[in-house]
């Protein structure tokens, strides 16, 4: 694995949106690392809220749903607890948090959760303030405009806990597979609330792969709504579509994305990225949300749905609503 690349310089406190150099870097590489996006105080506040949520949620009526991060051949999560989470806050367990012989938790619940999702931005004010509301929300909206969005919509948000010893590996994937629009339009805003290092399973990226790797499949609900599956994508699903190249199978070279707490990483929906299992004694907690283009079609086959339909996905326009 190649060493980490130097991070672009941080935005100054009075900068709105992206600088021309940052925008060019994003378009060239498919991701952009922006250090010091959140203050230490804001990170601590979000960590405190996360730990309270992990402590307070009840196991009494929880279906013990696990979040599976395997490849497309694996059985993926798809129970009602998961499929009905688009407008709720729900807790999903790590696969390795359970004893394989007894099926019982082998970790305290606070150290067993893989992620909390998928409507933190709408239901938990502390997270709304760093996604679409307030000063940070206005800054995020400016970034979305710089990235070319006409009607940016925030459709999901998550806290991801790469738990000590059991934090699962995430294989190479593209976010547009899971949040599909026609044409693909997702961008992830990924914010480290704790340092993410090679020891505790930081992200890594295949720079430029967003320009050569089409989305070949999408993660959808089964026709009978009994679970989820992968469906082949027909046609040209590169984003953008104006690169003159022939698609080839290749072994990608991944670059580490080690970052400090408070760092924002923008992730193009077509870029291949992954993370390794956390075998260390130190976890890493991050907050992430995704935007899509509201003018593109987001249909009923997508796994993530909300009762009022995609037109009700949160606007990322700086208004905080």
UniProtKB/TrEMBL annotation:
It comes from the Eukaryota. This is Uncharacterized protein. It comes from Neophaeococcomyces mojaviensis. The lineage of its organism: Eukaryota, Fungi, Dikarya, Ascomycota, Pezizomycotina.
């Amino acid at each position: 694995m190649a060493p980490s690349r130097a991070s672009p310089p941080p935005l100054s406190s009075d900068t709105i949106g992206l600088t021309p150099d940052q925008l060019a870097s994003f378009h060239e590489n498919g991701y952009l690392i922006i250090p010091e996006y959140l203050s230490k105080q804001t990170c601590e506040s979000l960590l405190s809220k996360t730990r309270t949520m992990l402590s307070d949620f009840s196991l009494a009526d929880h279906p013990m749903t696990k979040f599976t991060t395997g490849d497309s051949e694996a059985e993926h999560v798809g129970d009602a607890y998961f499929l009905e989470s688009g407008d709720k806050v729900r807790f999903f367990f790590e696969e390795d948090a359970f004893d394989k012989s007894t099926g019982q938790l082998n970790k305290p619940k606070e150290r067993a959760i893989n992620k909390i999702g998928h409507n933190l931005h709408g239901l938990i004010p502390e997270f709304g303030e760093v996604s679409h509301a307030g000063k940070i929300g206005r800054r995020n909206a400016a970034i979305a405009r710089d990235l070319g969005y006409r009607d940016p919509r925030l459709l999901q948000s998550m806290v991801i806990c790469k738990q000590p010893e059991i934090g699962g590996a995430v294989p190479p994937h593209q976010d547009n597979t899971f949040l599909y629009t026609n044409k693909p339009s997702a961008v992830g805003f990924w914010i480290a609330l704790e340092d993410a290092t090679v020891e505790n399973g930081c992200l890594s990226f295949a720079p430029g792969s967003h320009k050569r790797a089409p989305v070949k499949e999408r993660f959808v609900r089964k026709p009978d709504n009994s679970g989820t599956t992968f469906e082949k994508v027909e046609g040209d699903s590169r984003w953008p579509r104006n690169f003159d190249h022939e698609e080839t199978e290749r072994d990608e070279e991944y670059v580490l994305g080690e970052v400090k707490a408070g760092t924002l990483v923008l992730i193009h929906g077509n870029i291949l990225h992954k993370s390794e299992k956390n075998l260390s004694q130190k976890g890493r907690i991050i907050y992430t949300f995704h935007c899509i283009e509201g003018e593109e079609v987001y249909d009923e086959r997508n796994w993530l749905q909300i009762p009022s339909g995609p037109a009700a996905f949160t606007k990322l326009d700086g208004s905080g609503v």
